[in-house]
Design brief:
Helix content: 10-25%
Low-confidence stretches: 1-40, 456-480, 482-491
Strand order of the largest sheet: 1-11-8-5-6
Structural class: mainly beta
CATH class of the largest domain: Mainly Beta
Mean pLDDT: 82
Number of helices: 5
Distance between the termini: 178 Å
CATH architecture of the largest domain: Sandwich
Radius of gyration: 42 Å
CATH topology of the largest domain: Immunoglobulin-like
Number of domains: 3
Length: about 500
């Protein structure tokens, strides 16, 4: 090969390489190497190559770090590495032994490049370690498509985190060494980054309360951090309310503790139990902030388990046309239970009592004073039925599986004394159906009033009363006969 031809080959390759290698650090790599073994200075196509991919969290500001395929040994401490992200590499069906191919490498589109048939020598997969590194080893030169897969196991600093997926990118190995025009890099480094949008939820339970009370679901979510050249196209947070809850309102919407207003900054929709808060992208710039708000819901019924879960909440965003969303979050539960009372005669347990009226209270003092009765589904009193049973369903246990309530009788059944002493009842999570199956009724008996006995059942008292009665009868008879004789005499 003539010197002129070798120079022309090297010049063409160097120009393509310099333009393409500059994209490595952005995760949109088309790192051009140099030509086939056409002479001195050309790369060795049969020499082993490596690609080291470091998945990072998008920093809040530009770092001025190189993005040319070289190793970055001085990453700032505040740039976080992402563990547990899978990258897949496919070999592109391009022959690098043809130097004319090199002139078109910077025009390759990751969406349309032809791939070689998949095999153990044309497809590789690695998952990032605790340093955020996924390293690939190849037997020789080639053009490679790198794709990040959706991950539900990503961690940042050991904590489960959802990180924006980087766009697929192309790497050519070996690559032109930007620091020495007479060298080629057989070990290339890429640093794709992604913004995070973690989401967390807590529940504010209503305390000692029943059906008809309010559950507030409190959401905290991170707005993705944007690179200087990225655009946030859309951002929303959705939450599916479980059956048994009705949506009331979204309130206290804030970005970094600064209040946001509707509709200038966000809008709220609800459909089939799914509450969606859609934010105006411009209101969230420059990105990286923390959103907080609460969704209020009313409890109208309780599942058989006594557990109201909330597990379908997520953030969804679009950056530069690419959409991402947070992975499955941990469920947040609210627990509810039942009080059942069995009312019967103190002297005869088989004799059940209908018509006893009860109220339920948060404390013994309230129960003794008959104040602050708890409302359950709009009622504060509960009456025993013809079988002597009282059911008080839907009592809040908060975020624990048990809670003590107090019951007190406020009206006794007809013919019985009021039992004024309250009873503490440990309530556990469950429904009426489960409760009835377990038959964990709280026994509550009443006694009849005891009247004083009159001395009419024998003995001396009976004789005295009988004698007195006879005297009275005799006296009345004597008076009557005397009156008749006097009347006859006057006639």
């Amino acid at each position: 090969m003539s010197h002129m031809k070798r120079s022309r080959v090297k010049a063409a390759l160097a120009g393509v390489a310099a333009a393409a290698v500059a994209l490595v650090g952005l995760g949109l790599t088309s790192s051009a190497a140099s030509a086939a073994p056409l002479g001195v200075g050309n790369p060795q196509l049969d020499k082993a190559t490596t690609l080291s991919v470091y998945k990072l969290v998008q920093p809040g500001s530009a770092t001025a770090l190189p993005n040319n395929g070289t190793e970055i040994t001085n990453l700032p401490a505040d740039i976080k590495r992402v563990e547990g992200v899978e990258f897949v590499v496919n070999q592109v069906d391009i022959d690098l032994s043809d130097w004319n191919v090199w002139q078109t490498l910077d025009q390759l589109d990751p969406k349309t490049v032809p791939l070689k048939p998949e095999s153990a020598t044309t497809k590789w997969s690695e998952t990032t370690d605790s340093n955020g590194l996924a390293k690939f080893n190849f037997p020789g030169a080639g053009v490679f498509l790198v794709t990040e897969k959706v991950s539900t196991t990503a961690k940042v600093g050991g904590v489960d985190t959802t990180v924006q997926i980087s766009k697929p990118f192309i790497v050519v190995l070996p690559s032109y060494d930007p620091s020495d025009k007479n060298k080629w890099m057989y070990d290339v480094y890429a640093y794709p980054k992604g913004g995070t949008s973690d989401i967390e939820k807590t529940v504010t339970e209503p305390g000692f309360a029943g059906l008809g009370s309010t559950l507030s679901w409190n959401i905290t979510a991170a707005v993705p951090t944007l690179a200087a050249n990225q655009t946030l196209d859309a951002f929303s947070i959705s939450d599916r309310l479980e059956e048994g809850l009705t949506f009331d309102k979204v309130r206290d919407v804030k970005l970094d503790d600064a209040p946001l207003t509707s509709p200038a900054d966000y809008s709220v929709t609800e459909s089939n139990g799914v509450v969606t808060v859609t934010f105006v992208p411009a209101s969230l710039l420059p990105g990286g902030g923390e959103l907080t708000f609460s969704i209020d819901s009313t409890v109208v019924s309780v599942p058989d388990t006594g557990i109201i879960p909330n597990k379908e909440y997520k953030s969804t965003w679009t950056i530069d046309g690419d959409t991402g969303k947070t992975g499955p979050p941990p469920p947040v539960n609210s627990y509810w239970g039942v009080i059942g009372i069995k009312k019967y005669d103190l002297e005869d347990e088989a004799k059940v009592l209908q018509g006893a009226v009860f109220s339920v209270y948060a404390s013994e003092d309230d129960a003794k004073a008959n104040k602050n009765p708890i409302s359950v589904d709009g009622k504060t009193t509960f009456t025993s039925d013809e079988n002597g049973y009282v059911m008080i369903p839907g009592l809040s246990l908060g975020t624990t599986t048990s809670r003590d309530y107090y019951i007190a009788e406020v009206e006794a059944p007809a013919g019985y004394l009021l039992r004024s002493t309250p009873v503490k009842v440990p309530v556990t999570a469950g429904s009426v159906a489960e409760f009835e199956l377990a038959a964990k009724y709280t026994p509550f008996s009443n006694e009849k009033p005891i009247y004083p006995n009159l001395p009419l059942t024998g003995g001396q008292g009976t004789m005295l009363i009988t004698g007195a009665g006879l005297v009275l009868v005799a006296g009345a008879t004597f008076v009557a006969m005397r009156s008749r004789r006097k009347a006859a005499a006057l006639a």
